[in-house]
């Protein structure tokens, strides 16, 4: 078997010890894609053959979530395993009126949030892992996240904001990833593949766009659908490369989308109740795990998974323990998955209000308990929004607010939110 040759000792259920090769880790992060906009999730038009194949080979949680439907806090949560109010990265941009250059130069404590917490690359490094950042990355240089290698410089004076040079990955090929893998020697790798796909600009290859033009009356929808397939093609190229190099069998592949998207048919932007919202269209995403011979492929349409679980899952697979601050579970542990009934999340302003107080930028907290979902607005930043309660089993698209019919359930879940994070 090709790949890393570092060995770990794992205790088997019977108490014996077995040797296992340290796995490589490939983390694939989609950017602005609806939870149902995949073939394996049942979309009637969008073609995603590469991700459909990955799903057939993976443990798939169709009830996957991210705590925040805004990309920067969501991505920070994936790399740290912490909620936004824990790692302090709540918003995409600094307070209004403060230029990003000034923000990074004079208020370095904000960008340093990523340096004050443990990240996957930093935690994996003592085990001999090398790590490579590509695509979307908001936290300055890739080095601030602990990556040994990467594409993003993060310098605002050279256009650094949310990925800069890294945003070429996928749209302009995958050669930087191939070079990194081939040049790493025998060391195990961790790859952050977060391409700017299907994110705007929706400028897909013409061949893909022509296919979808005839399947919708909206050119905006056609472009978005084509972008979803373009993203799928890049995933297929990357997975095929692992196969060709003999790396697939000992690589844990993890898939998630940073936040949802519902394409507006009338314009190039997103429709309401999707990106930046606490609704399913903003926070729900399929989560997939593939590790041949270690994870049994199956589809889980019942149990809850959330992006704070990815770090504990990856660390455990690599023979490490999650940090004490991590509240997620190991998704490879069926008992832990079965015991969980509740997850939480938080939505913040696009521009931070006070970089020292996460609660100052809060718009909504949300909670899912079984199939019940509560959305709790913040009275300061979302004063006109109403408390909403939904039964996701019967109403997955949140069309019927049941707060009036189930006042006790609302009170109970509000108390659960306050125990989780009182937002003060």
Walk me through this protein's architecture:
- This protein has helices at residues 49-56, 71-80, 84-87, 100-106, 108-111, 113-116, 120-124, 175-182, 206-213, 219-244, 280-283, 310-317, 334-339, 407-420; strands at residues 7-11, 17-21, 24-30, 59-65, 130-135, 149-150, 189-194, 251-257, 284-290, 298-300, 305-306, 342-348, 362-369, 372-377, 388-391.
- The protein has 424 residues and is an alpha/beta fold.
- It has a single domain, classed as Alkaline Phosphatase, subunit A, CATH 3.40.720.10.
- Strands 3, 4, 5, 6, 7, 8, 9, 10 and 11 form a nine-stranded mixed sheet that branches. The chain has a four-stranded antiparallel sheet with strand order 12-13-14-15, with helices on one face. It has a two-stranded antiparallel sheet with strand order 1-2.
- β1 (7-11) and β2 (17-21) form a beta hairpin.
- The chain is globular and about 60 Å long.
